[in-house]
Amino acid sequence: MSTQTIASPPFVEDFGELALRHGLTVSGARPTLTDYVRQLWSRRHFIGAFATARLTAQYSRAKLGQVWQIMTPLLNAAVYYFIFGILLQTSRGVPDFVPFLVTGVFIWTFTSSSIMTGSGAIRGNLGLVQALHFPRATLPISYVLLQLQQLLFSMGALVMILMCFGEFPKLTWLLAVPALILQAVFNTGLSMIMARLCARTPDIAQLMPFILRTWMYVSGVMWSIEKVLKGEHLPHVVMVALECNPAAVYIDLMRFALIDSYTAAQLPPHVWAVALGWALLFGVGGFIYFWKAEEEYGRV
Description:
By secondary structure, the protein is mostly helical. The protein is built from 14 helices and no strands. Helix content is about 70%, strand content about 0%. It starts with 14 loop residues before the first helix and ends in a 9-residue tail after the last helix.
């Protein structure tokens, strides 16, 4: 028996080439970096609305509602004051320890909460990610914006505490604005990195509370890094690591902006430069790292 080969009709074209010629692209394909930024900007209103809706819903079931935005960091500060300030006596030699501690807790909470919520940005919104086509970076950005809104809401309580301990508004308080902007950029980049890593490996999110707790303990939230560096003979690499720790740097900037006893001292010249460097490194690097996996998020 002879086998006949049926030739394709001459009018049949390569459909892939035809689609490309008419501007059709692969569904979920990663856009160029420039197009990606443009798409994010066009969805800026969604980012703001998504963050606000999440913030409203976060405490909707609690009887005290959004009062917990203030109560949570205050209760943490009270516990840390009892353990570290009273039992362990880390308050010795630290001027204005209560403003020092409360400022550190509030600023640290912004970073730690941004990382934790960013870790679940993709996994926690799979229905949205798989059903709709949009730049997925809107999700970790929205979560950091949510945490920033929560911090700004809580800053009223921080101001009241500072005033109760003799810290009143002054021009240096304006330095808190660029400090928070740099920290927000840093947090956003780190949140994007965690969002991509946890989208692939969810188990990483289970380790984050332990990693963040360790990071908090070495970031000078409850104790003075400057005091330790002056009083201890530590290896040079450890001293540099403590001084350049990004969480500690952003906390230091806020303390020097808000607390008189720190404003009167000379801010080490490296702090602003390091804060800017961390913001650029993680803000830009984290964004590119997240964008490179844009095609994968819909297949999680």
